[in-house]
Amino acid sequence: MIQPSVFATFESSSGARIQRLPVEAFPNLWANLYLIHSGDTLALIDSGSGNDKSNEDLQRGFAMAGYRFSDLTHILLTHGHIDHYGGLSFLRERTQAQIGLHELDLQTVSHHEARLAVMSHRLDDFLVGAGIPSERRAELLNMYRFTKALYRSVPVDFTYEACEMQVGPFEIVHTPGHCPGHVVIKLDEVVFCGDLVLEHITPHQSPEELTPFMGVRHYLESLSVMERWASDASLVLNGHDEPINELLLCIANTRQHLSRRIDQTLAAASEPCTVAGITEQVYGALGGYNALLVIEKIGAYVEFLYQRGLLEITNFEDLEHGKEPVPICYRRLDGIGSSMFISRANGVAT
């Protein structure tokens, strides 16, 4: 469980005032929003989940900061996950601020209902292939839809690539992998890294089979981009916990943990096994929404290993000739370990 942060104020080298506004996005899941006053710009980075508690915390944070929602000039999203964009429905009724995000998350935020319908079908197909029984699939799909049911589509005013990755005093870089349109935002020597790196946990992964620009390869490449682009940062603020004190060490630890999980995935497939079976071996039995998250994670690891020739599909004849979709069984191939594909020096997948 991510522990809640507290309201805090920071300052950039140019004198911009940065205020951290913690909100309880979901029970036991806290998110950090950031209110930045720089010259004529008053920008909010991320918006919380949009549930009642998150919105109450957001209102309280604005009061503590000494601003009204109507004072905002911009709302900048780091990525299209519900705990970061869900509050837009609440905010849009209270401010005329310009809303911006990356193009690859536009459908998620501005055409939410259609995107949710498409993703539900894709997720069901993935869970079939993963070997999840029909009754359990229905439970997982209901949980997936429930977390997003209260949000309604909100049009955005601009997208980052169309603005050449610059919005007022903010520089932006695209860092997909955790989310297709994930970005990192920089103001002077302060970096807002969203969920790309977190101090105590490895950000969630899911396979590119579900959504383009997801998956381990994109995530590793984005860690390398972060290393180069934020090398001069003196303050790194993230979406869920305390500031990251040693960015390079945090990235190295993230790579190491990711490599360890992928090696565990490879070891679990010494005999033919589905993604569901591998998940149980690596993580054990989990309930609630975490059960869906770890299945997606193992799906991402299996995808990465299969693409690099470290796994084979053992029941391809069933897949080819079966009238109904069937679970896919994977088996480890003898050869080099997965760490060969995760360079601890620069994190680029080869």
What is the terminal separation in angstroms?
33 Å
Q: Determine the structural class based on helices, strands and strand pairing.
A: alpha/beta
* Strand residue content: 15-25%
What would the CATH topology of the largest domain be? Metallo-beta-lactamase, Chain A
CATH architecture of the largest domain: 4-Layer Sandwich
Rg, Cα atoms, Å: 21 Å
Major sheet attributes: 7 strands, mixed
The strand count comes to 14
CATH hierarchy, class of the largest domain: Alpha Beta
Helical content stands at 25-40%
Report the CATH superfamily of the largest domain.
Ribonuclease Z/Hydroxyacylglutathione hydrolase-like
Which spans have pLDDT < 50 for at least 5 consecutive residues?
A: 344-350
Overall pLDDT: 92
In total, how many domains does the architecture comprise?
Answer: 2
Strand order of the largest sheet: 1-2-3-4-5-6-7
Q: How many helices does DSSP assign?
A: 11
The global form is globular
Order of SSEs:
EEEEHEHHEHHHEEEEEHEHHHEHE
In words, what does this structure look like?
This protein is an alpha/beta fold and 350 residues long. It has eleven helices and 14 strands. The protein has two domains: 202 residues, Ribonuclease Z/Hydroxyacylglutathione hydrolase-like (Metallo-beta-lactamase, Chain A), CATH 3.60.15.10; 84 residues, Arc Repressor Mutant, subunit A, CATH 1.10.10. Strands 1-2-3-4-5-6-7 form a seven-stranded mixed β-sheet, with helices on one face. The chain has a five-stranded mixed β-sheet with strand order 8-9-10-11-12. A two-stranded antiparallel ribbon has the order 13-14. α5 runs antiparallel to α6, α8 crosses α9 and α8 crosses α10. It is globular.
